[in-house]
Amino acid sequence: MSQPNPNENPHSRIRADLTLLLASLFWGIGFSAQRVGVIHLDPNFFNGLRFLLAGIVLSPWMIFRRQKICPLHPKAIWGALLAGVVLFGASSFQSMGVRYTTAANAGFITGLYVVLIPVILSIFLHRSPGKSIWLAAGTAVVGLFFLSTGGSMRFNTGDGLVLISALFWSLHVLVIGWLVKFADVAFLGTMQFLVCGLLNLLVSLMAPERGNLTDILNIWYAIAYNGVFSVGFGFTLQAIGQEVAPPADAAILLCMESVFSAVFGWILLGENLTSIQILGCVLMFIGMLLAQLDPFKVKSSQ
After folding, report:
1. Is the pTM value of this prediction over 0.90?
2. How far is CA 25 from the centre of its chain?
3. Distance (Å, whole) CA 91 – CA 18
4. Is the pLDDT of residue 300 over 70?
5. Which of 38, 62, 251, 280 could disulfide-pair with 43, CB 3.0 to 4.6 Å?
6. Residues in a beta bridge with 127
7. Cβ of 54: how many Cβ atoms within 10 Å?
């Protein structure tokens, strides 16, 4: 775990941590709004509307930033396109899954990206994770089993789709981590949202029933919340917070998305969890935290 910078302003770190916690809150509530949206509209159509709305909301910020900073890095445009495509995969599978599972399940299963990231790095970048990573993965898998099946041998289709989305979210985190080294955050965020929104709308053209204007007006609040707060503000707050907060702080605080999704699924949608499912949530959350305890050991090339 990285040591704090002695010259770092502790108040800045606290503000950064609170910023990340607020992002988690927006995302956690967003699962309930997303579930409402995909019940009334085709999942890809709903995604298209919310991501395009987020891109439009962030556009003035991007234009303002473009007037203040240096010209775009040559890789920034292609990087934003790549981020948008990966985001499209993550959002599509997640929204299709949310349609057939609960907001709580979707939130906790999505949180598995914290465990999947070190596994991906181990496979493709030859970084050998320590023992706590494998313990984290095992704990999270057991928790996923309890949460998704209630302890019996069955696996909800929606849970499986959300699990696939967690893999895409892992890839998205890694892509963004690479892009922020040379791409402006405002440009990257706005462009990836617009690309993701357009791809979702194109795919929704193949849906037999996308929804109509009446359906959109009936759930305008779900579209508005997901577009403005969950996507637009949530991802922006994440970027701002991670400029100061240490990686360990960020990972743990962003995991709180899972807890908020369960709490607001209960408050807003009346979703209940059995005792065995609550145990699954606890185990998955422990797995997410364990994934941050042991730093990677890069394999020697000698």
Report:
1. no
2. 12
3. 25
4. no
5. 38
6. 298
7. 28
What's the distance, CA 39 to chain centroid? 20
DSSP secondary structure letters along 75-93: HHHHHHHHHHHHHHHHHHH
Q: Which two tokens stand for residue 292?
A: 């941050």
Question: Residue 75: is it exposed, middle or buried by C-beta count within 10 angstroms (0-12/13-18/19+)?
Answer: middle
Per-residue pLDDT, 55: 94
Determine contact, residues 299/126, Cβ cutoff 8 Å.
yes
Query: Quick one: which H or E segment has residue 298?
Result: strand 297-298
Give the pLDDT confidence of 73-128 residue by residue, as tens digits.
778 889 999 999 999 999 999 989 988 888 778 877 887 777 787 777 777 766 66
Q: Are 101 and 158 in contact (CB under 8 A)?
A: yes
- The span from the CA of 77 to the CA of 70, in Å, is 14
Tens of pLDDT, residues 132-171: 667 777 787 788 777 766 766 567 889 899 999 999 988 8
Tell me the CA distances in angstroms from 117 to 73, 120, 168, one per residue in order: 26, 5, 10
Whole-number Å distance between alpha carbons of 40 and 38: 5
CA neighbor of 148 nearest in space, from 161, 165, 133, 132: 161
Distance of alpha carbon 70 from alpha carbon 5, whole angstroms = 29
Q: Which two tokens stand for residue 202?
A: 């194109």
Tell me the sheet residues that pair with 298: 127
Report the Cα 240 to chain-centroid distance in Å: 16
Q: How confident is the model at residue 296 (pLDDT cuts 50, 70, 90)?
A: very low
CA distance 227 to 234: 10
Structure confidence at residue 194 as a pLDDT band (50, 70, 90): very high
